[in-house]
Amino acid sequence: MEELSKVIVAYFTLGNIGGVASILGFFLTIYVFLTIRAIKRNYLFRARVPILQKKLQKHASSISSMMHSYSDSKNIIMKELSLAEVNSLSLQSKTKGKMKSSLKALVSDIRYYKKSGGSKEDLRKIYLSLNMVIQEIANYRDDDKWERNDV
């Protein structure tokens, strides 16, 4: 028993204690960094998403009205799709999971349409994807209110 206590005392030198504290401090730093990053992402999401959602709704509304006179509105449609692409990319950087993959698909469809000249059917597909993303955002925001008991 006496020998065990000598070994324990010999092991707990200032150098060993400092080494363990250094390693613990490193892991604590990583934990704090990841936590702050998650808080920042959540804050940005809550602050910016309602504005971006309204912008996407305006784009969807404009695209819908321009589909009725598709051949006369091609230039305006391209402009509206460019704005929708920028807002979707901004939103994509603030999201994760299913919503992020839906936004990636939407941006991909918009880029394909702009590159190829697109058809009315391609525009209809973009319009439907845009509405799907808008609804996903609305659902997420509703779920978030429930989680925070802000109903």
Task: Describe the protein's architecture and organization.
The chain is mostly helical and 151 residues long. The protein has one domain (2-147): Up-down Bundle (Four Helix Bundle (Hemerythrin (Met), subunit A)), CATH 1.20.120. The protein contains 5 helices and no strands. Helix 2 (14-67) packs antiparallel against helix 3, helix 2 crosses helix 5 and helix 3 (74-92) runs antiparallel to helix 4. The N and C termini lie far apart (63 Å). 17% of the residues are buried.
How much of the residues is beta strand, in percent?
under 5%
CATH topology: Four Helix Bundle (Hemerythrin (Met), subunit A)
Would you list the SSEs in sequence order as H and E?
A: HHHHH
- CATH superfamily membership: IL-4 antagonist (De novo design) like domain
What is the C-level CATH assignment? Mainly Alpha
Give the overall form: elongated
Whole-Å distance between the termini? 63 Å
How big is the Rg? 26 Å
Main β-sheet, in a few words?
A: none
Uncertain ranges = none
Topology:
Blueprint: H1 2-11, H2 14-67, H3 74-92, H4 98-116, H5 120-147
Helix pairs in contact: 2-3, 2-5, 3-4, 4-5
Structure at a glance:
This protein has 151 residues and is mainly alpha-helical.
Characteristics:
mainly alpha, 151 residues, single chain, Four Helix Bundle (Hemerythrin (Met), subunit A)
